[in-house]
Amino acid sequence: MFEAITQITTPALLFPAISLLLLAYTNRFLVIAQLIRSLYKQLNESQEQIMREQIDHLRQRISMIRQMQAWGVGAFICCTLSMMMLFVEYDRMGSYFFGASLVMLLISLVYSLYEIMISGYALNIQLKHLER
């Protein structure tokens, strides 16, 4: 059962994927931070309900991105531990850490999907406001 990932190269394949994923998450966070600053300025100029709805969605998205990042970092840590265990020839532990890394990566991706859905909904609110 554990022979499939007794080579250190198997978890090493996740390294570039997880790194790119974390970079994408960070970029999403920075974009949201910029949007929040912009909305703050607009809210001070105009007290519209649409701004409050956008702020609520941004708050949700920030929470989701934090979860995405946390699970992504956990996946990276477990992947690193997996490689370390395989390097010192603790194959069973290496396999467990690799499995945990895959599960954490999956959880991170599910949070990412949910955040994308929230983002799309927030954009639809903005589009409805533009149609008025």
Order of helices and strands: HHHH
Number of helices: 4
Average predicted confidence as pLDDT: 80
Largest sheet: none
How are the SSEs ordered, and which strands pair?
Elements: H1 9-12, H2 14-45, H3 49-87, H4 91-131
Helix pairs in contact: 2-3, 3-4
Descriptors:
4 helices, mainly alpha, elongated, 132 residues
Characterise the protein shown here.
The relative contact order is 0.16. This protein has helices at residues 9-12, 14-45, 49-87, 91-131. It is mainly α and 132 residues long. It has one domain (11-131). The protein starts with 8 loop residues before the first helix and ends with a helix. The protein has 4 helices and no strands.
How would you concisely characterize the structure shown here?
With 132 residues, this protein is an all-alpha fold. It has helices at 9-12, 14-45, 49-87, 91-131. 88% of the residues lie in helices and 0% in strands.
